[in-house]
Design a protein that fits this description.
Elements lengths: L6 E5 L4 H12 L3 E6 L2 H13 L3 E6 L12 H8 L4 E4 L15 H28 L3 E6 L12 H20 L5 E7 L6 H6 L15 H8 L8 E4 H5 L4
Helix pairs in contact: 4-5
């Protein structure tokens, strides 16, 4: 119960890495606020969390509608008075295509979800993290933010922008009670990975559950790391 009585807000919580984080945090004693687009998937997640003996609050929200994120803060403050952990996990891939052929509407959608929504989350949740005695913010990035590759288009550019934004936020929080970090999951057995590498055998990849230790460690009250870009595979001792 390493996260006992802590309040955690997780975006993209209905599947993949986000769902694994929600279930692990609940099993570690946290109350999880699960944000995702699909009500049905959230309800299924809630059933799994209850089966683990945990508790959840479900928030159906399409993060592409970034203006709606501002409305999160007031009801969360009224109910909980604080947020101890923020996990910005939600993201979309877009497509693999030459940059000069990338559809402008899809480019804007990727940046809305991967970058703009996270800035709005920080804006909305920062006072609640500050109200915690040990606020922790974790954002999910990708190796393509640093390892520049052809055809990765909006996804790579958006993750590079996310990195710059989050590491700047970490510096702004350096003198306070909030710790801020980026986690690169690496190749993981998720739907997004299958979208990017359709010919890959998913059984050669670690599952989302295999990389959960890094998310728990960075969320604990005693965590002192901040302003870091962390490889989940390295942290969890998983080979390349």
């Amino acid at each position: 119960m390493r996260l006992k009585d802590r309040i955690a807000l997780i975006t993209g919580a209905s599947r993949g890495i986000g769902a694994a984080i929600a279930k692990r945090y609940a099993a570690e004693g946290a109350h999880v606020i699960c944000v995702a687009r699909t009500t049905g998937a959230l309800e299924e997640l809630d059933d799994e969390i209850k089966a683990l003996g945990g508790s959840a609050t479900l928030v159906p929200l399409d993060l592409e509608k970034t203006e709606l994120i501002d409305g999160l803060a007031a009801p969360l403050y009224e109910r909980f008075g604080r947020i101890d952990i923020l996990v910005g996990n939600a993201g979309i891939f877009g497509r693999m295509t030459p940059l000069h052929q990338f559809p402008p509407d899809l480019w804007e959608k990727v940046f809305k979800v991967n970058v703009h929504a996270n800035q709005r989350l920080i804006r909305a949740v920062h006072p609640l993290l500050h109200a915690s005695k040990a606020g922790r913010a974790i954002f999910v990035t990708s190796s393509v933010s640093r390892d520049i590759r052809a055809y990765w288009g909006a996804y790579a550019a958006s993750k590079a922008a996310l990195d710059a934004m989050v590491l700047g936020y970490a510096k702004e929080c350096a003198q306070g009670n909030i710790r801020v970090n980026l986690v690169n999951p690496g190749g993981t057995r998720t739907n997004m990975r299958a979208e990017a590498f359709p010919g890959e055998d998913p059984n050669t990849l670690p599952t989302a559950e295999d990389i959960m230790e890094v998310f728990v460690a960075l969320a604990e009250e005693g965590c002192t790391r901040s302003g870091e870009w962390i490889s989940a595979r390295d942290f969890c001792g998983i080979g390349k």
